[in-house]
Amino acid sequence: MATTISAFTFLFAFFFIQAVHGAAIGVNYGRLANNLPPPPQVARFLAQTTTITGVKLFDADPFVLQAFAGTNLSINLAIPNELIPKLTNLSFAQHWVHVTILPHIQVTNITRILVGNEILSTANKSLIRSLVPAMQNIHTALTGVELHHRIKVSSTHSLSILSTSTPPSTGQFRKGYDTQMIKPMLSFLRATNSTFMVNAYPFFGCNADTLDYALFRGNTRVFDENTGLVYMNMLDGQLDAVYSAMKLLGFTDIEIVISETGWPSVGDESEAGVDIESARDYNAMLLQHVTSGVGTPLMPNRTFETYIFSLFNEDLKPGPRSERNFGLFHPDMTPVYDIGILRSEGELPMPVRSTVPPEVPDQGQMKQWCIPKLNADIKALQENIDFVCSQGLDCNPILPGGICFSPDITRAHAAYAMNEYFQAFGRNSYNCDFGQTGEITTTDPSYGSCKFN
Ligand SMILES: *[C@@H]1O[C@H](CO)[C@@H](O)[C@H](O)[C@H]1NC(C)=O
Ligand SMILES: *[C@@H]1O[C@H](CO)[C@@H](O)[C@H](O)[C@H]1NC(C)=O
Ligand SMILES: *[C@@H]1O[C@H](CO)[C@@H](O)[C@H](O)[C@H]1NC(C)=O
Ligand SMILES: *[C@@H]1O[C@H](CO)[C@@H](O)[C@H](O)[C@H]1NC(C)=O
Ligand SMILES: *[C@@H]1O[C@H](CO)[C@@H](O)[C@H](O)[C@H]1NC(C)=O
Ligand SMILES: *[C@@H]1O[C@H](CO)[C@@H](O)[C@H](O)[C@H]1NC(C)=O
C-alpha cells in the first residue's frame, strides 16, 4: 500500500506544480540601481533557486537577453516609449527585430515584446496615436521572420486608463481613448491571440480604511449592487473593473495579464501600511490567489499570469522611500522576506558581492560621458554599436563619410555610440554599463571635428 500512497502523493504534487506553472508567476527585473549583481548571476539565481517561470524586462538590453540564454525562463522584453514613433515605419520595425531579437532567439526564450509602458499616462498625443501602428509593425516584422507564433506583442497599461472603477461593474476606459486607441488595440490583441496587460497596484488604490481589503485580509467585503457580487480583495475589484471596461467594447475573450503588482516593505514615516509584514502578506496572498484557479467574481475559475514588482530593491528610483523598496530580494540576492518562491533553503546560493563599480558621485555641474573600458572586448563593443544604432539614435557620424568615422576602429566608434545612448536615455550608471564594458568619464572624449554630445 505504501507505493499507492506515494504514487498518490506524487500525482498530487505533480498537479499542484502544473497548476502553479499554468499561472506563470514572473518577476519584473528593474535595474534602476547601482548595486545589483551582474545579469548572468541574476539569471542563474532565478532559474536554479526559485520557482519563477517568467521575467519582465524594461528594455531589450542585449547583455541581459544574453544572460538568460539557456535558462528556459520566458522573457518579456520592452521597447521604451521614446522608440514608438520610429516604429510606425515598418522598415525600422523590421530592422529593430533583426538587430534586437534575432541574435538571441536560438538561445533565449523570448515570448513577448511589450511596446511602451503606461503610454496613456504620458498624455503625449503623438505617442498615443503611434502605439497601435507600432505594435502592428512589430508583429508584421515578427511574421516576416516566422516568429509571430512564438513571440506575442502587447503593451502595459496603468489603471489610469479607466475613468471609473468602483464598483467593478462600472469600469470603463477613459472617453476618447476608448475608441481611438483601446479598441484598435484590443482588436489587434484578439487577431494575434495576445494578452491585455495591466499594472494593478492595490497599494496605490488604498487608504487607511481600505488597507485590509487591499492586503487580502479577509475581514472586509465590498458589495457590487449592479451584479450582486461580493468582493473580498481589492485586486479582484481592479481586475474586474478592467474586465467590465473591455466588455463594454465587446472584448471579453482576451486574457488579462497582471504585468506589475507589488507592495513595498520600507517607506517614509508618512506612508501607511508599508512594512515587511504587509509586503510579505500581499505578495504571498497574491501568489496563492492568482494560481488557485478561483479567479475573480466576474472571471471565475481561472488563473492569472502575474509579474511581481519587483525582483530587487532599486536604490536609484526617484520618489518616496517606498519606491526604492518594492523588491523581493536585496541586491546581494538574500530575500527581503519569504513568499515561498525559493526552491529550498539548502539550495540558496552564497550571497554575492556586486562587481558593478559604485555609483559615480554627484559631480555637480561637471559633465559626464560614457566610453568603453580599456580592457573591453572588441566583439562586445561591436555589439554595443549594433545595439545603440538599433535604438533609433543617430549613428550617421560613425558611418563612412561621417564626421567621427575616422579613425575607423571599433573602439572609437563604440565610444561614440555608447555615449549617444548614455546622453539620450539619461546619464545614469546603468545606461553606461553595457555588460560591464562601459565606464563614465568626466574628460571630454571629443577629438578634431568629432564632437561628443
Ligand atoms: C518558454 O517559455 C514558455 C512560457 O513560459 C514555456 O511554455 C516554454 O516551454 C519555454 N520554452 C523553452 C524552450 O523553455
Ligand atoms: C529547458 O526546456 C527543455 C525542453 O522543454 C528541456 O529539455 C531542458 O532540460 C530545459 N532546461 C532547463 C535548464 O530547465
Ligand atoms: C512626445 O513624445 C515624442 C517621442 O518621445 C517626443 O519627441 C515629443 O517631444 C513628445 N511631445 C510632447 C508634447 O511632449
Ligand atoms: C524608415 O526606416 C528605415 C530603416 O531604419 C530608414 O532607412 C528610413 O529612412 C525610414 N523612413 C522614414 C520615412 O523615416
Ligand atoms: C492562443 O494562445 C493560447 C495560450 O496563450 C493557446 O492556448 C491557444 O491555443 C491560442 N489560440 C490560437 C487560436 O492560437
Ligand atoms: C466554476 O467552478 C465551480 C466549481 O467547480 C462550478 O460550480 C462553476 O459552474 C464554475 N463556473 C464557471 C463559470 O465555469
UniProtKB/TrEMBL annotation:
Keyword Hydrolase (UniProt): yes
PROSITE patterns hit by this protein: GLYCOSYL_HYDROL_F17 (PS00587)
InterPro entries recorded: GH (IPR017853), Glyco_hydro_17 (IPR000490), Glyco_hydro_17_plant (IPR044965), X8 (IPR012946)
Record family assignment: Belongs to the glycosyl hydrolase 17 family.
Species this protein is from: Dioscorea cayennensis subsp. rotundata
Enzyme nomenclature, EC number: 3.2.1.39
Protein name: glucan endo-1,3-beta-D-glucosidase
Annotated keywords: Disulfide bond, Glycosidase, Hydrolase, Plant defense, Signal
Catalytic activity from the UniProt record: Hydrolysis of (1->3)-beta-D-glucosidic linkages in (1->3)-beta-D-glucans
Endpoints of the signal sequence: 1-22
EC class: hydrolase
Gene: LOC120272286
Domain X8 residues, every copy: 368-452
PANTHER family per UniProt: GLUCAN ENDO-1,3-BETA-GLUCOSIDASE BG1-RELATED-RELATED (PTHR32227)
UniProt superkingdom: Eukaryota
Biological process, per Gene Ontology: carbohydrate metabolic process; defense response
An example molecular function term from Gene Ontology annotations: glucan endo-1,3-beta-D-glucosidase activity
